[in-house]
Amino acid sequence: MAIWLTLCGAVVVLAYLVGSFPTGYIAGKLLKGIDIREVGSGSTGATNVLRTLGKVPGAFVLLIDCLKGVFAIILIYTLFNFAPSQNLIPTTLDLQLWQPWLVTLVGLAAILGHSKSIFLGFTGGKSVATSLGILLAMNWQVGLATLGIFAVVFAISKIVSLSSISGAVAVSIFMIIFQQPLAYILFSIAGGLYVIVRHRSNIERLLAGTEPKIGQKVETKPEQTA
Question: If residue 159 lies in a helix (H) or strand (E), which one and from where to where?
Answer without folding.
Answer: none
